[in-house]
Amino acid sequence: MDTYEEITVKRDTLFKGRIVSLHVDEVKLPNGKMSTREIVEHPGAVAIIAITDQDKMIMVEQYRKPLERSLVEIPAGKLEKGENPLTCAKRELGEETGYTCESMELLTSFYTSPGFSDELLHVYLAKGLKKESELHLDEDEFVDLLEVSYEEAQQFMKEQKILDAKTIYAVQYWQLARTMESKV
Amino acid sequence: MDTYEEITVKRDTLFKGRIVSLHVDEVKLPNGKMSTREIVEHPGAVAIIAITDQDKMIMVEQYRKPLERSLVEIPAGKLEKGENPLTCAKRELGEETGYTCESMELLTSFYTSPGFSDELLHVYLAKGLKKESELHLDEDEFVDLLEVSYEEAQQFMKEQKILDAKTIYAVQYWQLARTMESKV
After folding, report:
1. Does the annotation count A105 as an active-site position?
2. pTM score, whole prediction
């Protein structure tokens, strides 16, 4: 149902950056009135749920400038131009954690904030993890690697050290998987 | 652990809009090198998980200009300046769906995209729902109200009609609640 489609009358591109671009669209609404829409264009990203044989989820702690604080998150990274999400997920897992995996399964994809941004995040489940090497971070990337038990993850959520959509999804996924298992 | 703090040397504010503002910060990295951070400032938002006595989740279908398509989502809206999130959640539930509720419980809060935005989303669970009135939408807001069964929600996810973080969290929450119940 796209009957409420908003017709673009004019687009002003106010910024083209390394990561995001900003557009302000003048739109014609279904009732014929005009309005504006502020749109943040993003290349899209991947995130990886990786649980070791010791039942620890691999996470990274890093400083997030928009929040002026650090968060504990699952490994993630943005897509390079034209990059396949699966390729990106394997690359980011290696670069941020030093782990490789035997298989990666797409669990879900979601728009992080469809009201103002087109960022689409693909969440993969990595299986058959092997610690291969040291991290290979981008030169402006500083992260601490953590291996987090289920109980620690719950505690990090209480303490709001885990406080972002993809990681809260990942911990909820973990809880669901454990609940299913315990039913069997 | 904020040892990786990035010191702001200079902030350029390139845009101040109705919904978002855009800043480009020049930052000093932990290794002393300089970099830039593109930051989208957002007032924050709320979303409401509302399940009726008939075990249907209340959702809205609306056109999302950044995606140039419509999505099926749980009711949500952004915070007015200085607005309390709980007040906002009750207001948005009424405005977007015409329902009131006896109680609202904060389930979780999460940053939708901490890499480039400070948007914090608060997710509430509404209980004791009553259909009170017609919708009172903003004049540039056009939504269709849906009451979605669990099976329909799963189908909408397969069809990618449900494709945003808060709604996928909500359906996962529903799945977890049903799994827990069925265990008892």
Report:
1. no
2. 0.95
